[in-house]
Amino acid sequence: MIGFFIALISGALMSVQGVFNTQVTKASGIWAASAFVQLTALFVCLGAWLVTDRSSLIGVFSVQPKYMLLGGAIGAFITYTVIRSMDLLGPAKAVMLIVVAQLLVAYIIELLGWFGVEKQPWEWRKLIGMLIAIVGIVIFKWK
Fold first, then answer.
1. Contact 86, 22 (CB under 8 A)
2. How confident is the model at residue 130 (pLDDT cuts 50, 70, 90)?
3. What is the pTM of this model?
């Protein structure tokens, strides 16, 4: 149950962060705003590490395969695409499309067992759930 609430908090924070970052972009520029976001995230993470964890920072480099270290670089492009989509579509439409894209890609990753994730069987109900989410987007956009 705690995972459910953490996921809800994550979604809420992503939406608020996207709005904040879009406003910062208007005052500076998209890459300056993205760099600031990543820099402040670094400081928060280092502070949290100092207070709570203190595991080896060098240990991250022992991960295999090495391409798993690209998460931060992907994060920079996530920040960019969230800012642009919110600016162009507005927060609600952008977040709906982002969530459906996340769901679709996550399900494909599970189905194919990519990136070390345990392979899951195909389930029609999951496809139906995604289709319902897409229909929800169409209804939400409908004027």
1. yes
2. confident
3. 0.82
Any alpha helices (H) in the chain, and if so which ranges?
Answer: 2-27, 30-48, 71-89, 91-112, 124-141
User: What would the pLDDT profile of 49-93 be if each residue is shown by its tens digit?
Assistant: 999 988 888 888 998 999 999 998 999 999 999 999 999 999 988
Tell me if the bond preceding 91 is cis, omega within 30° of 0. no
Determine the 3-state secondary structure of 55 from DSSP. coil
Token pair recorded at residue 99: 């969530």
Burial grade of 33 (CB within 10 A; 0-12, 13-18, 19 or more): buried
Q: Which amino acid is at 108?
A: I
Cα 89 to chain centroid distance, Å, stands at 17
Residue identified by tokens 């993470």 is 45
